Amino acid sequence: MENVKSVFILIFLLCIGMFSCQVSEPTNQEEIIPEINVSNALNNRAVPTQNKLPQANQQIQQQVLGQNNKIPVDRRINVTDTFPEPAAPPFARNRIQVALLLDTSNSMDGLIDQAKSQLWKMVNELAKTAKEGEDPQIEISLFEYGNDRLDAVKGYIRKVSRLTIDLEFVSDRLFELKTKGGSEFCGWAIKDAVEILDWSDNPNDLKIIFIAGNEEFTQGKIDYKLACQKAKEKGIIINTIHCGDYDTGVRHMWGDGAACSGGKYMNIDQSKKVVHIPTPYDDKVLELNKKLNETYIGYGNLGSSRKTMQELNDVKSESYSSANTRTRAFYKTKSNYKNETWDLVDATETNYDEVIKKVGDKELPKEMQELSDQERKKYIEDKRAERKKLQILLKGLEKNVDEFIAKKKKEMAAEGEENTLDNVMMSTIRKQAEKKKFLFK
Protein backbone atom coordinates (compact mmCIF):
# COMPACT_ATOMS: atom_id res chain seq x y z
CA MET A 1 0.00 0.00 0.00
CA GLU A 2 2.87 2.34 0.80
CA ASN A 3 4.28 1.70 -2.69
CA VAL A 4 0.94 2.64 -4.29
CA LYS A 5 0.82 5.88 -2.30
CA SER A 6 4.38 6.69 -3.34
CA VAL A 7 3.50 6.21 -7.02
CA PHE A 8 0.47 8.54 -6.74
CA ILE A 9 2.57 11.18 -4.99
CA LEU A 10 5.25 10.95 -7.67
CA ILE A 11 2.67 11.32 -10.47
CA PHE A 12 1.10 14.28 -8.69
CA LEU A 13 4.46 16.05 -8.36
CA LEU A 14 5.31 15.41 -12.03
CA CYS A 15 1.99 16.94 -13.14
CA ILE A 16 2.65 20.04 -11.04
CA GLY A 17 6.11 20.36 -12.57
CA MET A 18 4.79 20.07 -16.14
CA PHE A 19 2.08 22.64 -15.45
CA SER A 20 4.62 25.05 -13.95
CA CYS A 21 6.79 24.82 -17.08
CA GLN A 22 3.83 25.70 -19.27
CA VAL A 23 2.87 28.83 -17.35
CA SER A 24 6.33 30.02 -16.37
CA GLU A 25 7.46 33.52 -17.26
CA PRO A 26 9.23 33.99 -20.62
CA THR A 27 12.96 33.40 -20.64
CA ASN A 28 15.48 36.04 -21.59
CA GLN A 29 15.36 34.69 -25.14
CA GLU A 30 11.81 36.01 -25.55
CA GLU A 31 10.86 39.63 -25.92
CA ILE A 32 7.45 40.90 -24.92
CA ILE A 33 6.45 43.74 -27.21
CA PRO A 34 3.49 46.05 -26.57
CA GLU A 35 0.38 45.02 -28.45
CA ILE A 36 -1.66 47.19 -30.79
CA ASN A 37 -5.42 46.93 -30.38
CA VAL A 38 -6.98 46.83 -33.83
CA SER A 39 -10.56 45.85 -33.06
CA ASN A 40 -12.01 49.28 -33.80
CA ALA A 41 -9.93 49.83 -36.91
CA LEU A 42 -10.97 46.52 -38.43
CA ASN A 43 -14.59 46.93 -37.37
CA ASN A 44 -14.39 43.55 -35.67
CA ARG A 45 -14.23 41.89 -39.08
CA ALA A 46 -13.37 38.21 -38.81
CA VAL A 47 -10.41 37.02 -40.83
CA PRO A 48 -11.62 35.32 -44.02
CA THR A 49 -11.06 31.57 -43.81
CA GLN A 50 -12.40 30.39 -47.14
CA ASN A 51 -8.94 29.57 -48.44
CA LYS A 52 -6.80 26.88 -46.92
CA LEU A 53 -3.58 28.68 -46.03
CA PRO A 54 -0.12 27.16 -45.76
CA GLN A 55 0.74 26.29 -42.16
CA ALA A 56 3.04 29.29 -41.77
CA ASN A 57 0.26 31.64 -42.89
CA GLN A 58 -2.18 30.02 -40.49
CA GLN A 59 0.28 30.67 -37.69
CA ILE A 60 0.64 34.33 -38.59
CA GLN A 61 -3.15 34.66 -38.89
CA GLN A 62 -3.40 33.42 -35.32
CA GLN A 63 -0.66 35.84 -34.31
CA VAL A 64 -2.07 38.84 -36.12
CA LEU A 65 -5.71 38.55 -35.15
CA GLY A 66 -5.69 36.37 -32.09
CA GLN A 67 -7.52 36.79 -28.85
CA ASN A 68 -9.25 40.19 -28.47
CA ASN A 69 -8.12 41.29 -31.96
CA LYS A 70 -4.63 42.29 -30.85
CA ILE A 71 -1.31 41.97 -32.61
CA PRO A 72 1.17 39.98 -30.54
CA VAL A 73 4.66 39.86 -32.00
CA ASP A 74 6.63 36.76 -31.05
CA ARG A 75 10.25 37.17 -32.03
CA ARG A 76 10.84 33.42 -31.79
CA ILE A 77 9.00 33.07 -35.11
CA ASN A 78 11.13 33.97 -38.11
CA VAL A 79 9.18 36.68 -39.91
CA THR A 80 10.51 35.55 -43.29
CA ASP A 81 8.61 32.25 -42.82
CA THR A 82 5.18 33.79 -42.27
CA PHE A 83 4.34 35.21 -45.70
CA PRO A 84 6.27 34.08 -48.78
CA GLU A 85 8.61 36.72 -50.14
CA PRO A 86 7.07 38.39 -53.21
CA ALA A 87 8.10 37.18 -56.64
CA ALA A 88 10.65 39.14 -58.64
CA PRO A 89 9.15 42.28 -60.22
CA PRO A 90 8.16 42.07 -63.89
CA PHE A 91 10.25 43.72 -66.57
CA ALA A 92 9.67 47.45 -66.91
CA ARG A 93 11.13 50.00 -69.29
CA ASN A 94 11.70 52.62 -66.58
CA ARG A 95 12.58 51.67 -63.03
CA ILE A 96 13.35 53.43 -59.78
CA GLN A 97 15.06 50.98 -57.43
CA VAL A 98 15.76 51.98 -53.83
CA ALA A 99 17.42 49.80 -51.18
CA LEU A 100 17.10 50.99 -47.59
CA LEU A 101 19.86 49.75 -45.26
CA LEU A 102 18.84 50.59 -41.70
CA ASP A 103 20.98 50.27 -38.59
CA THR A 104 18.87 48.40 -36.01
CA SER A 105 21.35 48.46 -33.14
CA ASN A 106 20.30 49.64 -29.68
CA SER A 107 20.56 53.38 -30.27
CA MET A 108 18.54 53.46 -33.49
CA ASP A 109 14.92 53.46 -32.26
CA GLY A 110 14.44 57.02 -33.50
CA LEU A 111 15.67 56.13 -36.99
CA ILE A 112 13.36 53.12 -37.25
CA ASP A 113 10.40 55.17 -36.01
CA GLN A 114 11.07 57.83 -38.65
CA ALA A 115 11.27 55.14 -41.35
CA LYS A 116 7.99 53.54 -40.20
CA SER A 117 6.19 56.86 -40.13
CA GLN A 118 7.47 58.11 -43.47
CA LEU A 119 7.81 55.12 -45.85
CA TRP A 120 4.52 55.80 -47.63
CA LYS A 121 5.25 59.50 -47.92
CA MET A 122 8.48 58.69 -49.75
CA VAL A 123 7.01 56.15 -52.18
CA ASN A 124 3.98 58.34 -52.83
CA GLU A 125 6.30 61.14 -53.90
CA LEU A 126 8.25 58.74 -56.12
CA ALA A 127 4.96 57.70 -57.73
CA LYS A 128 4.53 61.29 -58.91
CA THR A 129 7.42 60.91 -61.36
CA ALA A 130 7.27 60.12 -65.06
CA LYS A 131 9.77 59.36 -67.79
CA GLU A 132 9.03 59.60 -71.48
CA GLY A 133 5.37 59.98 -70.60
CA GLU A 134 5.24 56.74 -68.59
CA ASP A 135 4.97 56.04 -64.89
CA PRO A 136 8.11 54.30 -63.61
CA GLN A 137 8.07 50.98 -61.82
CA ILE A 138 9.03 51.63 -58.18
CA GLU A 139 10.90 48.84 -56.40
CA ILE A 140 11.91 49.02 -52.74
CA SER A 141 14.21 46.70 -50.78
CA LEU A 142 14.87 46.63 -47.05
CA PHE A 143 17.95 45.47 -45.11
CA GLU A 144 18.73 45.67 -41.43
CA TYR A 145 22.23 45.54 -39.99
CA GLY A 146 24.06 45.92 -36.68
CA ASN A 147 21.57 43.87 -34.65
CA ASP A 148 22.71 41.20 -32.17
CA ARG A 149 19.69 39.06 -33.05
CA LEU A 150 21.18 38.52 -36.50
CA ASP A 151 23.75 35.93 -37.55
CA ALA A 152 27.28 36.97 -36.59
CA VAL A 153 28.73 34.81 -39.38
CA LYS A 154 26.74 36.88 -41.86
CA GLY A 155 27.93 40.17 -40.38
CA TYR A 156 24.79 40.88 -38.34
CA ILE A 157 23.04 41.69 -41.62
CA ARG A 158 19.66 40.52 -42.93
CA LYS A 159 17.90 41.08 -46.20
CA VAL A 160 14.39 41.79 -44.99
CA SER A 161 12.91 42.12 -48.47
CA ARG A 162 14.15 41.82 -52.03
CA LEU A 163 13.58 44.65 -54.49
CA THR A 164 9.83 44.47 -54.94
CA ILE A 165 6.80 46.41 -56.12
CA ASP A 166 4.85 44.79 -53.27
CA LEU A 167 5.17 47.66 -50.83
CA GLU A 168 2.57 46.22 -48.47
CA PHE A 169 5.07 43.43 -47.82
CA VAL A 170 7.89 45.94 -47.25
CA SER A 171 5.70 47.98 -44.89
CA ASP A 172 4.72 44.89 -42.92
CA ARG A 173 8.37 43.88 -42.53
CA LEU A 174 9.43 47.40 -41.60
CA PHE A 175 7.04 47.36 -38.64
CA GLU A 176 8.61 44.08 -37.50
CA LEU A 177 12.03 45.67 -37.01
CA LYS A 178 13.24 45.92 -33.42
CA THR A 179 16.55 47.32 -32.21
CA LYS A 180 19.15 45.35 -30.27
CA GLY A 181 22.93 45.18 -30.13
CA GLY A 182 25.43 45.45 -31.87
CA SER A 183 28.25 45.78 -34.40
CA GLU A 184 27.54 47.89 -37.49
CA PHE A 185 29.46 46.79 -40.59
CA CYS A 186 28.51 49.32 -43.28
CA GLY A 187 30.88 48.03 -45.97
CA TRP A 188 29.57 44.51 -45.53
CA ALA A 189 25.92 45.67 -45.66
CA ILE A 190 26.55 47.58 -48.90
CA LYS A 191 28.37 44.61 -50.44
CA ASP A 192 25.45 42.30 -49.63
CA ALA A 193 22.88 44.73 -51.05
CA VAL A 194 24.89 45.15 -54.26
CA GLU A 195 25.45 41.42 -54.76
CA ILE A 196 22.21 39.89 -53.48
CA LEU A 197 19.59 42.18 -55.03
CA ASP A 198 18.38 41.94 -58.63
CA TRP A 199 19.51 45.33 -59.87
CA SER A 200 18.47 46.50 -63.32
CA ASP A 201 21.16 46.36 -66.00
CA ASN A 202 19.64 49.39 -67.74
CA PRO A 203 22.01 52.35 -67.22
CA ASN A 204 19.07 54.76 -67.58
CA ASP A 205 17.23 53.37 -64.56
CA LEU A 206 17.66 55.02 -61.18
CA LYS A 207 19.40 52.68 -58.73
CA ILE A 208 20.02 53.95 -55.21
CA ILE A 209 21.21 52.63 -51.88
CA PHE A 210 20.44 54.63 -48.73
CA ILE A 211 22.43 53.48 -45.71
CA ALA A 212 21.71 55.06 -42.33
CA GLY A 213 23.52 54.59 -39.02
CA ASN A 214 25.56 56.30 -36.34
CA GLU A 215 28.86 54.45 -35.83
CA GLU A 216 32.13 54.54 -37.76
CA PHE A 217 31.61 53.71 -41.42
CA THR A 218 34.86 51.73 -41.45
CA GLN A 219 33.87 48.89 -39.08
CA GLY A 220 33.98 45.25 -40.18
CA LYS A 221 36.20 43.09 -42.35
CA ILE A 222 34.73 44.33 -45.66
CA ASP A 223 36.40 47.53 -46.89
CA TYR A 224 33.63 50.01 -47.70
CA LYS A 225 35.71 51.33 -50.61
CA LEU A 226 35.63 47.93 -52.32
CA ALA A 227 31.88 47.70 -51.72
CA CYS A 228 31.42 51.18 -53.17
CA GLN A 229 33.45 50.23 -56.23
CA LYS A 230 31.17 47.22 -56.85
CA ALA A 231 28.17 49.51 -56.59
CA LYS A 232 29.66 52.04 -58.96
CA GLU A 233 30.33 49.32 -61.55
CA LYS A 234 26.60 48.50 -61.55
CA GLY A 235 25.57 52.15 -61.76
CA ILE A 236 24.27 52.14 -58.17
CA ILE A 237 24.46 55.40 -56.22
CA ILE A 238 25.22 55.14 -52.50
CA ASN A 239 23.78 57.86 -50.30
CA THR A 240 24.85 57.86 -46.66
CA ILE A 241 22.86 59.21 -43.71
CA HIS A 242 24.69 59.73 -40.44
CA CYS A 243 22.37 59.80 -37.44
CA GLY A 244 24.09 62.52 -35.47
CA ASP A 245 26.37 65.50 -35.88
CA TYR A 246 27.41 66.35 -39.46
CA ASP A 247 31.11 66.84 -38.70
CA THR A 248 31.28 63.65 -36.66
CA GLY A 249 29.87 61.77 -39.64
CA VAL A 250 32.57 63.25 -41.85
CA ARG A 251 35.27 62.14 -39.41
CA HIS A 252 33.77 58.67 -39.27
CA MET A 253 33.98 58.45 -43.09
CA TRP A 254 30.24 58.63 -43.88
CA GLY A 255 31.02 61.48 -46.25
CA ASP A 256 33.64 59.44 -48.08
CA GLY A 257 31.25 56.47 -48.20
CA ALA A 258 28.92 58.54 -50.35
CA ALA A 259 31.55 60.35 -52.41
CA CYS A 260 33.15 57.13 -53.66
CA SER A 261 30.05 56.28 -55.75
CA GLY A 262 28.98 59.81 -56.63
CA GLY A 263 26.30 59.83 -53.95
CA LYS A 264 25.40 62.36 -51.29
CA TYR A 265 26.28 62.47 -47.60
CA MET A 266 23.56 63.69 -45.22
CA ASN A 267 22.94 63.77 -41.51
CA ILE A 268 19.72 63.67 -39.52
CA ASP A 269 18.64 64.13 -35.95
CA GLN A 270 17.10 60.71 -35.35
CA SER A 271 15.53 61.88 -32.09
CA LYS A 272 13.60 64.66 -33.83
CA LYS A 273 9.89 64.03 -34.08
CA VAL A 274 8.47 64.18 -37.57
CA VAL A 275 5.90 66.94 -38.02
CA HIS A 276 2.62 65.44 -39.23
CA ILE A 277 0.37 68.19 -40.56
CA PRO A 278 -3.35 67.38 -40.17
CA THR A 279 -5.73 68.70 -42.81
CA PRO A 280 -9.50 69.28 -42.99
CA TYR A 281 -9.66 66.47 -45.55
CA ASP A 282 -8.19 63.67 -43.42
CA ASP A 283 -11.45 62.17 -42.11
CA LYS A 284 -12.85 61.91 -45.63
CA VAL A 285 -9.62 60.34 -46.92
CA LEU A 286 -9.69 57.70 -44.18
CA GLU A 287 -13.36 56.98 -44.88
CA LEU A 288 -12.68 56.48 -48.60
CA ASN A 289 -9.60 54.41 -47.85
CA LYS A 290 -11.69 51.98 -45.80
CA LYS A 291 -14.18 51.68 -48.66
CA LEU A 292 -11.29 51.20 -51.10
CA ASN A 293 -10.04 48.22 -49.08
CA GLU A 294 -13.46 46.61 -49.52
CA THR A 295 -12.96 46.49 -53.30
CA TYR A 296 -10.11 43.96 -52.96
CA ILE A 297 -11.10 40.33 -53.57
CA GLY A 298 -8.65 37.93 -51.99
CA TYR A 299 -8.11 34.63 -53.81
CA GLY A 300 -5.75 31.67 -53.63
CA ASN A 301 -3.51 30.71 -50.71
CA LEU A 302 -2.53 34.32 -50.02
CA GLY A 303 -5.89 35.98 -50.50
CA SER A 304 -7.31 36.24 -47.00
CA SER A 305 -3.97 36.73 -45.24
CA ARG A 306 -2.77 39.47 -47.59
CA LYS A 307 -6.09 41.30 -47.45
CA THR A 308 -5.71 41.26 -43.67
CA MET A 309 -2.13 42.51 -44.01
CA GLN A 310 -3.36 45.43 -46.11
CA GLU A 311 -5.81 46.49 -43.41
CA LEU A 312 -3.33 45.98 -40.59
CA ASN A 313 -0.77 48.12 -42.37
CA ASP A 314 -3.37 50.89 -42.33
CA VAL A 315 -3.79 50.40 -38.59
CA LYS A 316 -0.04 50.40 -37.94
CA SER A 317 0.40 53.54 -40.04
CA GLU A 318 -2.41 55.31 -38.22
CA SER A 319 -0.73 54.47 -34.91
CA TYR A 320 1.81 57.15 -35.92
CA SER A 321 -0.65 59.63 -37.39
CA SER A 322 -3.67 59.96 -39.65
CA ALA A 323 -1.34 61.77 -42.05
CA ASN A 324 0.63 58.56 -42.46
CA THR A 325 -2.47 56.56 -43.38
CA ARG A 326 -3.48 59.43 -45.64
CA THR A 327 -0.35 59.01 -47.77
CA ARG A 328 -0.94 55.24 -47.88
CA ALA A 329 -4.42 55.86 -49.23
CA PHE A 330 -3.08 58.18 -51.91
CA TYR A 331 -0.49 55.60 -52.98
CA LYS A 332 -3.30 53.09 -53.53
CA THR A 333 -4.53 55.31 -56.36
CA LYS A 334 -1.22 55.09 -58.24
CA SER A 335 -0.48 52.69 -61.08
CA ASN A 336 2.43 51.31 -59.04
CA TYR A 337 0.08 49.85 -56.41
CA LYS A 338 -0.72 46.42 -57.86
CA ASN A 339 -1.68 43.22 -56.07
CA GLU A 340 -2.17 40.64 -58.84
CA THR A 341 -0.91 37.77 -56.69
CA TRP A 342 -3.85 37.90 -54.28
CA ASP A 343 -6.48 40.36 -55.57
CA LEU A 344 -8.83 39.25 -58.37
CA VAL A 345 -9.55 42.79 -59.53
CA ASP A 346 -5.89 43.50 -60.28
CA ALA A 347 -5.22 39.95 -61.50
CA THR A 348 -8.01 40.02 -64.11
CA GLU A 349 -7.45 43.54 -65.39
CA THR A 350 -5.66 42.55 -68.60
CA ASN A 351 -6.71 38.92 -69.18
CA TYR A 352 -9.85 37.95 -67.32
CA ASP A 353 -10.55 34.56 -68.96
CA GLU A 354 -7.00 33.22 -68.56
CA VAL A 355 -6.82 34.10 -64.86
CA ILE A 356 -10.28 32.75 -64.01
CA LYS A 357 -9.48 29.41 -65.67
CA LYS A 358 -6.50 28.97 -63.34
CA VAL A 359 -8.44 29.82 -60.17
CA GLY A 360 -10.35 26.90 -58.70
CA ASP A 361 -13.71 27.30 -57.01
CA LYS A 362 -12.20 26.66 -53.57
CA GLU A 363 -9.64 29.43 -54.15
CA LEU A 364 -12.41 32.01 -54.52
CA PRO A 365 -13.86 33.90 -51.56
CA LYS A 366 -16.94 32.25 -50.07
CA GLU A 367 -19.32 34.88 -51.44
CA MET A 368 -18.25 34.03 -55.02
CA GLN A 369 -18.20 30.23 -54.86
CA GLU A 370 -21.96 29.78 -55.41
CA LEU A 371 -22.16 32.33 -58.24
CA SER A 372 -22.43 31.42 -61.92
CA ASP A 373 -19.61 32.35 -64.30
CA GLN A 374 -21.55 35.37 -65.50
CA GLU A 375 -22.35 36.47 -61.94
CA ARG A 376 -18.69 36.09 -60.93
CA LYS A 377 -17.57 38.34 -63.75
CA LYS A 378 -20.17 40.95 -62.82
CA TYR A 379 -19.08 40.77 -59.17
CA ILE A 380 -15.46 41.47 -60.11
CA GLU A 381 -16.33 44.22 -62.59
CA ASP A 382 -18.56 45.94 -60.03
CA LYS A 383 -15.66 45.98 -57.58
CA ARG A 384 -13.39 47.35 -60.30
CA ALA A 385 -15.81 50.15 -61.14
CA GLU A 386 -16.22 51.02 -57.45
CA ARG A 387 -12.44 51.09 -57.00
CA LYS A 388 -11.91 53.46 -59.93
CA LYS A 389 -14.62 55.75 -58.59
CA LEU A 390 -12.99 55.85 -55.15
CA GLN A 391 -9.53 56.40 -56.62
CA ILE A 392 -10.78 59.41 -58.58
CA LEU A 393 -12.25 60.91 -55.40
CA LEU A 394 -9.00 60.29 -53.51
CA LYS A 395 -6.91 61.87 -56.27
CA GLY A 396 -9.03 64.99 -56.01
CA LEU A 397 -8.52 65.06 -52.25
CA GLU A 398 -4.78 64.55 -52.68
CA LYS A 399 -4.57 67.75 -54.69
CA ASN A 400 -6.44 69.62 -51.97
CA VAL A 401 -4.22 68.13 -49.26
CA ASP A 402 -1.01 69.04 -51.12
CA GLU A 403 -2.16 72.64 -51.52
CA PHE A 404 -3.16 72.87 -47.85
CA ILE A 405 0.15 71.44 -46.61
CA ALA A 406 2.22 73.68 -48.90
CA LYS A 407 0.44 76.72 -47.48
CA LYS A 408 0.78 75.47 -43.92
CA LYS A 409 4.50 74.81 -44.32
CA LYS A 410 5.05 78.38 -45.41
CA GLU A 411 3.30 79.57 -42.28
CA MET A 412 5.30 77.20 -40.09
CA ALA A 413 8.54 77.77 -42.01
CA ALA A 414 8.73 73.94 -42.03
CA GLU A 415 10.16 74.00 -38.51
CA GLY A 416 11.00 70.55 -37.24
CA GLU A 417 10.98 68.86 -40.65
CA GLU A 418 14.23 70.02 -42.17
CA ASN A 419 16.44 67.33 -40.74
CA THR A 420 14.34 64.16 -40.76
CA LEU A 421 14.78 60.96 -42.74
CA ASP A 422 12.08 61.50 -45.35
CA ASN A 423 13.13 65.08 -46.13
CA VAL A 424 16.82 64.37 -46.66
CA MET A 425 15.99 61.30 -48.73
CA MET A 426 13.43 63.02 -50.95
CA SER A 427 15.56 66.09 -51.63
CA THR A 428 18.36 63.77 -52.72
CA ILE A 429 16.19 61.44 -54.80
CA ARG A 430 14.67 64.39 -56.66
CA LYS A 431 18.05 65.63 -57.83
CA GLN A 432 19.33 62.17 -58.72
CA ALA A 433 16.10 61.23 -60.50
CA GLU A 434 16.20 64.37 -62.64
CA LYS A 435 19.70 63.43 -63.82
CA LYS A 436 18.18 60.19 -65.12
CA LYS A 437 15.42 62.16 -66.90
CA PHE A 438 12.68 61.27 -64.40
CA LEU A 439 10.44 64.31 -63.99
CA PHE A 440 8.26 65.06 -60.98
CA LYS A 441 4.68 65.87 -61.95
Notable features of this structure?
alpha/beta, 441 residues, single chain, 16 helices, globular, six-stranded mixed sheet, 2 domains, two-stranded antiparallel sheet, Rossmann fold, 10 strands, 45% helix
Task: Explain what you see.
With 441 residues, the chain is α/β, with parallel strands linked by helices. 45% of the residues lie in helices and 12% in strands. The chain has two domains: 95-275 and 416-440, Rossmann fold, CATH 3.40.50; 282-412, no CATH class. It has helices at residues 2-23, 55-64, 109-126, 167-174, 186-196, 224-233, 246-251, 254-259, 282-293, 303-318, 322-331, 344-347, 352-358, 366-369, 373-412, 421-435; strands at 36-37, 70-71, 95-103, 129-130, 137-145, 157-164, 206-213, 237-243, 265-268, 439-440. It is globular. Mean pLDDT is 82; it is low at 7-81.
In short:
By secondary structure, the chain is α/β, with parallel strands linked by helices.
Write the topology of this structure.
Blueprint: H1 2-23, E1 36-37, H2 55-64, E2 70-71, E3 95-103, H3 109-126, E4 129-130, E5 137-145, E6 157-164, H4 167-174, H5 186-196, E7 206-213, H6 224-233, E8 237-243, H7 246-251, H8 254-259, E9 265-268, H9 282-293, H10 303-318, H11 322-331, H12 344-347, H13 352-358, H14 366-369, H15 373-412, H16 421-435, E10 439-440
Helix pairs in contact: 3-11, 3-16, 4-10, 5-6, 9-11, 9-15, 10-11
